[in-house]
Design brief:
The protein is α/β, with parallel strands linked by helices. It has 13 helices and 14 strands. The strands form four sheets. Strands 5-2-1-9-10-13-14 form a seven-stranded parallel beta sheet, with helices on both faces. Strands 7-6-8 form a three-stranded antiparallel beta sheet. α1 runs parallel beside α2, α1 packs across α13 and α2 runs parallel beside α5. The site of ligand FO1 has 18 residues, from α2 and α6.
Length: 324
């Protein structure tokens, strides 16, 4: 069966998004995959720009990732961080020596006037990433959380405080002024298939969708649009999603996630464990692929990606037959 494999866009955050990207990159021909990355987690450390979601994608797609952590460079050392500690600088964000190299280069390139889109593409190419990676915007968008301890920046909450302070409210600073990356929008317009990665909707996908232009471009897309649930049996595959959603009084189920992407999806991929949710999803007009969505390793990711590509090809055929 032919698959939708010439222009595929993945909308992604960090670890879960990178696993899905790796699977798709293996299952697709070279040059077919574009990943649009969240920039809401970006922050500055010691005057250097750090873009965790972009970097997790670059390292995963170039097979440099520390697979145990899911972020950072495999076998990295922390000699620079040790010096910073001796100099009494804060060192809660574990930036490795090899990782510092990328942050130094990116900050140097940005200071020279290059856009984050250009710098990211160049880094991805030079480091050997197997897909095009585009930031959602060249402008700063920063996720802020109102917690029981007051408003916090994302990384001090996520890493510095291990997501402990309860989140009461979220906002994406700068989102009203931010322009959607022109290449990212063009990729969506050209896409045969748009996949929402199993990333945290509140922290990874919605900071992208909140930028003017993305929702309308996805809603108007001629391609198929499918999401992959980040929850199995109501529990997050990784990270603080379940607690975050429960704290904000949101439904912690695959249906609850699909509802957040209302009007943007044709189909939703759920885990076999969540089969009872199929009826409600179908009732909302979504096609459903129930399968094993846990990506334990790159082989799982490739198998899931191949299943999604075969399923979406069948959906398209069905759609074309219905239209003719
Ligand atoms: N996550 C942690 O839990 N602890 C860290 O010290 C840490 C350092 C770090 C450095 C560079 C980088 O690109 C990512 C890093 N992450 C760390 C992961 C990152 O905070 C999160 O994966 C995302 O921002 C959430 O998607």
């Amino acid at each position: 069966m032919p698959t939708l494999d010439s222009n595929v866009v993945l909308i992604a955050g960090g670890v879960g998004g990178a696993r899905m990207a790796e699977g798709l990159a293996h299952a697709l021909p070279d040059g077919a995959l574009t990943v649009i990355a969240n920039v809401g987690d970006d922050d500055d450390f010691y005057g250097l720009r750090v873009c965790p979601d972009i970097d997790t994608l670059v390292y995963t797609l170039s097979n440099r990732i520390d697979r145990k952590q899911g972020w950072g460079v495999a076998d990295d050392t922390v000699r620079a961080l040790d010096v910073l500690g001796t100099l009494a600088a804060p060192t809660w964000m574990k930036l490795g020596d090899a990782d510092f190299g990328l942050h130094i280069w990116r900050s140097w390139q940005l200071a020279a006037g290059n856009s984050l889109t250009r710098v990211t593409q160049e880094a991805a190419k030079r480091l050997g990433a197997r897909a095009r990676i585009l930031p959602a915007s060249d402008d700063p968008v920063r996720t802020k959380l109102r917690t029981t301890d007051g408003w916090m920046d994302f990384q001090p909450w996520f890493v510095g405080r291990r997501c402990e302070p309860q989140v009461l409210e979220l906002r994406y600073d700068g989102v009203e002024q931010a322009k959607a990356g022109a290449e990212a929008l063009a990729a969506i317009e050209a896409a045969e298939l748009i996949v929402f990665a199993p990333s945290n909707p509140l922290l990874s996908i919605e900071p992208i969708l909140a930028i003017d232009g993305f929702r309308s471009a996805i809603a108007a897309s001629r391609g198929l649009r499918v999401g992959v649930s980040p929850l199995i049996g109501g529990k997050a595959i990784k990270g603080p999603l379940t607690r975050l959603m429960a704290g904000l009084d949101l439904r912690t189920s695959s249906c609850g996630i699909a509802i957040r992407y209302n009007g943007l999806l044709d189909g939703f991929v759920i885990d076999m464990q969540d089969l009872p949710e199929s009826d409600e999803l179908q009732g909302r007009g979504l096609s459903v692929l129930p399968t094993d969505i846990l990506m334990r390793d790159p082989q799982d990711a490739e198998r899931l990606a191949a299943e999604i590509l075969a399923w979406t090809a069948a959906l398209r055929e069905h759609r074309e037959r219905a239209a003719s």
